[in-house]
Amino acid sequence: DAKTTQPNSMESNEEEPVHLPCNHSTISGTDYIHWYRQLPSQGPEYVIHGLTSNVNNRMASLAIAEDRKSSTLILHRATLRDAAVYYCILIRGNKLVFGAGTILRVKS
Amino acid sequence: GAGVSQTPSNKVTEKGKYVELRCDPISGHTALYWYRQSLGQGPEFLIYFQGTGAADDSGLPNDRFFAVRPEGSVSTLKIQRTERGDSAVYLCASSLYLAGRFSGELFFGEGSRLTVL
Q1: Residues of A in contact with B91 (CB under 8 A)
Q2: Which residues in chain B are contacts of A97 at CB distance < 8 A?
């Protein structure tokens, strides 16, 4: 399974944008980039995914580098409810393989 | 309910006992996944079903772990002769395959926390 690398933790101030980076230098041409997050005491939830173009949805934006070796999840205005572990995952086959993710702390 | 339901939410058992964990997926979702998560780590894949059959059980750690999905809906994860190292949160997820392809979107339940004393 293709590997992703994320910082262990990040901190943000409430109401400010957050950029969560992910490196995936071994990505292949058909690998989709997925982001999930896991709030405390809950199962992971889907955030967004993309292949080559940048993507936006109601939760976040995904910026994908031109060479696809890295991507950034953007939360436009962080709230306390966005404090969670964020996972960047490459889908290959029919399962998600999670890494350790990035712990996002949001300060009020 | 509309989401994935897992029971029990908490299970405390003694070393050597047998445990069953149940998952009720979202109605109509043909794929069902089991993961387990230890403290401070990301979820670890165990097994997934496409319909009634186990399509990939490569993540099951040993033969003490077994899962079934006899009617293609509810699934049960069974753990025999539990060990203290089995203590973890066991997560179930379901997914709707579109045109026979995995969409990448899994819907997770809240998990069953297993503690083996």
Answers
A1: 43-44
A2: 45
Map A39-98 to HEC letters. Answer: CCCCCCEEEEEECCCCEECCCCEEEECCCCCEEEEEECCCCHHHCEEEEEEEECCCCCCC
Q: How far apart are CA A8 and CA B97, in angstroms?
A: 32
The C-alpha angle A6, A10, A12, rounded to 5 degrees, equals: 140
Q: Are B75 and B25 in contact (CB under 8 A)?
A: yes
pLDDT for B46-81, tens place per residue?
999 999 999 999 999 999 999 999 999 999 999 999
Query: In this structure, are residues B32 and A95 in contact, taking their beta carbons and an 8 Å threshold?
Result: no
Provide the 8-state DSSP code for B100: T
**Residue B86: what are its φ and ψ, rounded to 5°?**
-80, -10
- The mean pLDDT of chain B is 94
Q: Work out the angle at residue A47's Cα, subtended by the Cα atoms of residues B21 and B8, and round it to the nearest 5 degrees.
A: 15
Please list the rounded mean pLDDT of every run of 10 residues in chain A (108 residues). Answer: 89 97 91 94 95 93 96 96 96 85 97
Residue B12 has which token pair? 């405390």
**A91 has which bridge partners?**
A32
Name the interface residues of B facing A (CB cutoff 8 Å).
Answer: 4, 31, 33, 35, 41-45, 48, 50, 55-56, 91, 93, 102, 104-111
pLDDT at B98 over 80: no
